[in-house]
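fyi for ur records
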Amino acid sequence: MNSKRNVYLDMKSIEEAKKCLFDHFNAYTTKIETIDVVNSKDRVLAKPAMAAISSPNFHASAMDGIAVDAQITFGASEESPKTLVPAANAFWVNTGHAMPADTNAVIMIEHLNIIDDNTIEIEAPVFPWQHVRKMGEDIVATKLLFPRGHQINSYSLGALLSGGIFQVEVYKQPRVIIIPTGSELKQWQDILPDQMKPGDVVESNSTVLGGLCQDHGALFEIHSMLKDDLFSIQNAVKEAAAGNYDMVCIIGGSSAGSEDFAKPVIASLGEVYVHGVTMMPGKPVLFGKVNQVPVFGIPGYPVAAIVAFEQFAGPLLLNMQLLPPKVVQTVMVSPARKIASKLGQEEFLRVKIGSVDGQLISSQLPRGSGSITTLTEADGVIRIPKHIEGVSEKERVEAHLIRPLSAIENTLVIIGSHDNTLDILGDQIRREHFNVNISSSHVGSMGGLMAIKKGGCHMAGAHLLDPVDGSYNLSYVKKYLPDLGVRIVNLVMREQGLMVPRGNPGNILSIEDLKTAGLRFINRQPGSGTRILFDYKLKQLGIKSWDILGYENDEYTHMSVAVAVLSGRADAGLGIKAAANALGLDFIPIITESYDLIIPDRFFESQKVQVLLDTIGTEEFKTRVLALGGYGVEKTGQILY
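which gave:
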């Protein structure tokens, strides 16, 4: 095995790296081609577009009526109408018709008194060129329609065609070749989901980057997948840089590991300009030149790959075509809770955003650069500069929107405990109300109550057990939200219990069995209803937390706990039966609990909340919930408090 590592010797800031990129490639534009105007939308003119004909190229009637020489109408009035004779001194025309010879005005049909087929009276005169589109009124032949560098939009197409321009010279779309690398990668065509083995990874980055190429006006091709082999990657890049491509993107192998070959490949064939940028995710990005062609080393983690492309490769593709930089809508948001960040690296933090009481509130999503769902679920991105350690919930910060603001305004923000039925609820609402969305952030039941207290959400999901009387949620609402009017509405009753591998190899029958030596537990985060339930049960049984191996290891959702058990990271975890069913795990029931929605009174009558309440009351929603297993809907929709 190659033991050499590609150390980041000179990491640059985003600004320094971009300056370096454009210092080397600013003048690198694509060649010029001639294409039909009808196919030219979004392309950039390489030469000015001069009108070949006038538009209109004849005098045209602008109304339905009769065309006349205006002079013969002078003197007409109600007291002294004038008589016109069709086909003699008055000629019937429709809108858009060419004006007959020796006519220069149109009298609207509404202003005519038609006596018979041969006699028309008018009671008012018209002036020359009234209701007439004169020749060249819009475009005069030889007029400059658009200068070089103009990006053709839908309106431009109409102007070009009207001006008799049927072909244009434009900058070619850049051609990008994407080279996926990685011995662990599998193409989707070659695998079946139920046949995936540990270590197999579905290669998705090339498809994502291909879509991003299209978003930046470029064409793309995906090279066949390559193993982590220096010479194979080297030959592919050498061939691509010598061919008809304007950019090469190597996916994977850009980091500093012994099997990361992007840097040595570019260095051996050309020159490396930047390796490593002080941003997170995307730090390992690198770029250089081979045969005058820009070559990028794109990190293999999905989010890192996207950020690296959007910060560097994408802007260069736009510049090659003289397209303007993309303009991203920004808004000011208030974080729902404090955001910590590392000094020295600019962070691209994915967030959900909701409008609550007229304020835009952001909730951060997991930071992992391998989690592409943190982008698909995100409403925006907060860029945290490298010189600060974080953002407090009292600050307002700028967020770059991924989804339109109108969609965010129609989003119902639910913060609190995780439950699988929230996904069904979101889908069910969209079936009937396509303009209403749900944004749910999973911070635990107590986190949900605190979010309500701070005005950070429209409602919270909670299942907080009162160990004194066995009730759910009410005592916590009274304690932590004493001055806030709220309603408690039941969403579902659900079974909580121990999720264990299929066949229950640890022979776990109860929580007491978790004390057995060697059995590893996966917990939920502090403040979650499930964690409170587990601590309550341990206290009932006289078991100390340190008696449970793995007590300190936690996850934020039931599905994450289920995955930990399925993957063998843990032998058991406390969670809902629906999560166990979803992943084929065995389940040992512990308790049936009430999962409720805590809704402040000021939002209860709002259109978004009423849509939700109407939806959970439908038989279709309840049927879908019951199909998950482990749920009861006998109280669903009931106002409990």
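The chain has a mean pLDDT of 90. thats all i got for now
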